[in-house]
Write a structure and sequence with these properties.
- The protein has about 325 residues and is of the alpha/beta class.
- The protein contains 13 helices and 10 strands.
- It has a 7-stranded parallel sheet, with helices on both faces.
- Helix 2 packs across helix 3, helix 4 packs parallel to helix 13 and helix 5 packs across helix 6.
- It is globular, with a radius of gyration of 21 Å.
Length: about 325
């Protein structure tokens, strides 16, 4: 049915769409504040810190939730279920933060869109900081989609550093590298890792990694305040293979040895243990630590990523996660490693 007052054939008013979108965002934020206050038992100061708002704004958000009749015996909003899932995942896997987006009968592209929006909000909590920040990033489709949702933020004091090679196998730039993309949104200086994701040989890797520019980027990543990473699945149509970073034989070798996921090009098995394969001695990525030495937040979801996300959680590689409801439930249902 057409909204009253709009003639047939006339496109929707973009200003009205923006208003509706902002109203929905406020309702979600108010629901989050209400859940933290009434269910998690957080103080208004704690709520303000977690939501990156002032204490008066936190107060108003809780009041708005009451006004909209969200507060009864429980928080009456779908997001409340996701907040509870995030809390359960955090407790089970030792995460400092976990954001879970709701999923109904969504197609994969719809899930990706929700993850991108939620991921952008998490990134902006750090990017909005006024103190100079060093932000390390890997690459991948989900990360790039999240960065596309980030608003323009003037933060020239920040530094973006890539943890993965900026050069693809065919010599072109890695199209899923996001350090430069974020820097364009913030005006920050960015540092690309001057190497391919996989060198052609062990000796060539040594040359790349001993280069002065590589050492500068590696040292800077060690000073990072936070790392944003993707989680890749390993299988017949996995990104590493589809994007030409590994051969069919290398992919089959990884799966034969039990790999279900990769972090920055490093394969791990279902228990999250790093696997040694023929590409291991040639990967040039900055090494991840387990447990993480800095806040390490992963962005991943969708049906194909369930096993990969569970593996990363089991291995203790993460301190934060942005995922979808179905993936979260799968991780909670998984048996302990």
């Amino acid at each position: 049915m057409r909204p009253a007052g709009r003639p047939a054939g006339q496109p929707p008013d973009p200003n009205r769409i923006a208003i509706v979108s902002k109203s929905s965002e406020k309702l979600d934020l108010a629901t989050r504040a209400a859940w933290l206050y009434y269910v998690a038992g957080d103080t208004q100061n704690e709520i303000a810190e977690k939501l990156q708002v002032s204490r008066p704004v936190a107060q108003r958000l809780v009041a708005f939730a009451v006004e909209k009749n969200l507060i009864r015996v429980r928080v009456d909003h779908r997001l409340a279920d996701c907040l509870d899932l995030g809390a359960q995942l955090s407790k089970r896997y030792g995460l400092a933060m976990c954001e879970v987006v709701p999923v109904d009968a969504d197609a994969p592209d719809a899930i990706d869109r929700k993850l991108a929006v939620a991921g952008a909000q998490v990134m902006e909590r750090y990017l909005n900081e006024t103190r100079p920040m060093v932000i390390a990033v890997s690459s991948g489709r989900t990360l790039k989609a999240a960065v596309a949702q980030i608003a323009q933020i003037d933060r020239p004091q920040h530094r973006l550093v890539s943890m993965v090679g900026a050069i693809a196998a065919d010599g072109s730039s890695n199209r899923y590298d996001v350090a430069q993309y974020i820097s364009e949104k913030t005006g920050s200086k960015h540092f690309l890792l001057p190497a391919p994701l996989f060198a052609d040989s062990d000796a060539e890797r040594a040359q790349w990694c001993n280069h002065r520019l590589y050492r500068i980027v590696e040292a800077l990543s060690g000073e990072a305040d936070v790392a944003f990473i993707g989680i890749g699945n390993i299988g017949p149509h996995c990104p590493l293979y589809e994007d030409g970073f590994i051969t069919e034989q290398e992919r089959d070798e990884m799966t034969a040895l039990g790999a279900v996921a990769e972090l920055l090009g490093v394969p791990i098995d279902a228990q999250g243990t790093q696997i040694t394969v023929s590409t291991s001695a040639r990967v040039t990525s900055v090494a991840l630590a387990t447990p993480p030495k800095l806040p390490t937040i992963a962005f991943a979801g969708g049906p194909k990523k369930h096993d990969a996300v569970i593996a990363a959680l089991r291995g203790g590689w993460l301190s934060g996660l942005v995922t979808d409801e179905a993936c979260a439930r799968a991780a909670l249902a998984a048996k302990a490693a």
